[in-house]
UniProtKB/TrEMBL annotation:
ATP-grasp domain location: 74-254
This protein's GO CC annotations: cytoplasm
Entry-linked Pfam families: RimK
Domain of life where this protein originates: Bacteria
Lineage, broadest ranks: Bacteria, Pseudomonadati, Pseudomonadota, Gammaproteobacteria, Chromatiales
Keywords (A to Z) from UniProt: ATP-binding, Manganese, Nucleotide-binding
UniProt-listed PROSITE patterns: ATP_GRASP (PS50975)
Protein name: ATP-grasp domain-containing protein
GO molecular function annotations of the record: ATP binding; metal ion binding; ribosomal S6-glutamic acid ligase activity
Length: 265
């Protein structure tokens, strides 16, 4: 049986049948027996994996860790503490604000747990600004501000790096995201950063993500990873992900604890 996809854009170039996510229950038999179910919505993951035994891509681990920065960061702190910027995850209380100012100083970076493409991320430069942020966030996710002007996006598919590139925002802009006007450079990507991404991805069973890192004094810090990352820079470089995705699925390899994926034909 061919592949089934819930996202036709991300499945371009793959022999996949599209099903609208909201109509998934009408196709339970096909989903349960498909060679692979591609790019489900997050709310579908548990039902597909545990309810139907479906073989999903990206992996369940990719979705579960990538969906929420808090869960992601705690996992990274547990397994790779030397590569995580100092991060505080606290209830939004006056005592927590005092602790953050004492531990992280100013400026610091405040993030909403579930956001991407630079949304929900702010550079906080004053105590008053931090108090305003806390007024609208029940949980504080606060990080030290690393002294770096650009970040590194590493695209990982299957069990390998597909490409990597620097992102640097316009002058005076805090965000480096391509979606916010960041410039891209594929030059002089450090091999040590690629090796770190490989160790992290294999450790957690992640098979599709865009990892964002910063380098300070040659040391790589993992900021976050996005399972459904933007393709703007890839399109500019003429890079298509359909070939590495298919190659990965056809290798009949999958993170531990999940059923294997096989392509028909």
């Amino acid at each position: 049986m061919p592949l089934i996809t819930f996202d036709p854009f991300r499945s371009l170039g793959l022999p996949a049948r599209y099903i609208h996510p909201e109509r998934w229950l009408e196709h339970r038999e096909a989903l349960a027996h498909a060679d692979g179910v591609l790019f489900p919505e997050y709310w579908q993951v548990n039902a597909l994996v545990h309810g139907l035994g479906a073989r999903i891509f990206p992996s369940a681990a990719s979705y579960r860790l990538g969906h929420d920065k808090i869960e992601m960061t705690r996992a990274l702190q547990a397994a790779f503490p030397d590569h995580v910027p100092e991060t505080l995850i606290l209830p939004s209380t006056p005592a927590a604000l005092e602790l953050a100012l004492d531990r992280l100083g100013l400026p610091l970076v405040a993030k909403q747990p579930r956001a991407s493409q630079g949304a929900g991320v702010a550079l906080v430069e004053t105590a008053a600004g931090l108090r305003r942020w806390a007024e609208r966030e029940p949980v504080l996710y606060l990080q030290e501000c690393l002294p770096a002007e650009r970040d590194l996006r590493v695209v990982w598919v299957g069990d390998a790096v597909v490409t990597a590139y620097w992102r640097q925002g316009p002058e005076g802009c805090f965000h480096n995201n391509v979606a916010r006007g960041g410039e891209v450079s594929f030059d002089d990507v450090p091999h040590a950063a690629l090796g770190l991404v490989g160790r992290i991805a294999r450790h957690f069973g992640i098979d599709h993500a865009g990892f964002d890192l910063m380098l300070v004094g040659g040391h790589a810090y993992m900021l976050e990873f996005n399972v459904l990352f933007g393709h703007d820079a890839l399109q500019q470089a003429g890079i298509r992900l359909s070939d590495p995705i298919r190659a990965w699925l056809e290798r009949d390899r999958t993170p531990p604890g999940e059923p294997p994926v096989r392509l028909a034909g």
